[in-house]
């Protein structure tokens, strides 16, 4: 966001949709959105540079964010980091000095995993960080360089658990449902046999019941906490100290949500609707606040172990957070609750989409020196070796839909792209992480060119683009979590599911994809399709992917397990069990079955 950028430029009057048609905004919608952004003020934009870059007309003293003077800026970009520039007139400006490019992964392959679905025999009804460590070790043994996981962002600790990993309570903290109870420090000192029996019994059904899982895991964590809280290791104290105010406020929010039984904080008693108003409550419930901070430490330790177990873990960052979330509660001055982000109608989602995530005011984000964004990225890279950014357009623009409105009636709002990209390069550069941006759907002109210039990989799926058209600088996959699996495509069950729930789709196109896949596999699309035909299609699909130009190619564990159902059906709420279906067999079995072994051999050939 430059000082020369005006509100009409932040909210353009029109946009080009996925069909290359210019769509004009409703004037009243545009005016309302611009008024919201104006409420965020007109903050001074940051100075974005890279180390050693010549800076013309930039004068003043550099300070650390703590106020310590570094020296005169000297006309060149300082070493990588965040600073404040104190200008001759006494005003200050936020400075982001970042490397010019992201690190690059070697050519290779990996697994794509919906972690919640990847249950082992030891799981308590949901995939956990212990299961992730198993997958990472198996992946490395098979030659895979990476494992992309679904977001592991935090959820609210309430009886009605959020199913979608893309609608988190916080993007800075972790999902406690993924804690492997047996691996919690101190678990061996407590009798958990009754809870463990009930937890493992949940594995008998494919449906994941997060409410039941949370009830059991919370009880187990409580028993361990009661037994060990008076003798916690120094590592715990260091973690809590480093988490500082951010961790404290998140833990306070968790206790409030638990007390009132709901994450809908705008319905709490008025004094608790802001962090400032909850200070006395936090003091009165200090033990419970400490419990949730400890639980975050436990989750962090387990994720760290999984990230060092084998293949590089690629963390997935959601496009936003739930309106009834801790992040919204803490940062509510940045959020417009009268809008939700989504996307306009396109070829694959004929009705468009609304994601139920409130819009972040770009002006307010700048005014806060991007602390919300920096905290999110830094947290994601604390242990993971790479990032996937869902809907990477969030760095350029987001589609705001008035609450309760139709997706076609929204407006694109532009964000301070240069600063956001610089923050990503800086944080990733500190750990050597590489970054992937999911750039499918409606992508604005120049976005992919900017990604390539910075060294950010794009993302391609074979169900949207033939694999022989994949460029080199991307992560490639057969499909995404929102698309049909190989088995669902070949058998036609995915089209049957769409029709059954009344979902709009281009069925002629989908049938064409099915027949093309059958031809590649040497399968008669009009004959009965059984497990043998599905296996042929899986191997044929991934043989093509393995040979493509993409830098990194992913094999889905859903396809390795011949799963027919999509993890998520966009645009549905109750019509489909979104994010609630586990793999049909324990993950340790699927990884050693002939189909997965053959698939891994096919994929690993690309390294040689």
UniProtKB/TrEMBL annotation:
Q: Which GO terms describe its molecular function?
A: 4-alpha-glucanotransferase activity
Going by the entry's taxonomy, the superkingdom of the source organism is recorded as Bacteria
Q: Which GO terms describe its biological process?
A: carbohydrate metabolic process
Entry EC number(s): 2.4.1.25
Gene3D superfamilies from the xrefs? Glycosidases
> Which controlled-vocabulary keywords does the entry list?
Carbohydrate metabolism, Glycosyltransferase, Transferase
The record's section on InterPro entries has: GH, Glyco_hydro_77
Q: What is this protein called?
A: 4-alpha-glucanotransferase
UniProt lists the family membership as follows: Belongs to the disproportionating enzyme family.
Reactions performed catalytically: Transfers a segment of a (1->4)-alpha-D-glucan to a new position in an acceptor, which may be glucose or a (1->4)-alpha-D-glucan
Which Pfam families does UniProt cross-reference here? Glyco_hydro_77
Q: What NCBIfam families does this protein's entry cite?
A: malQ
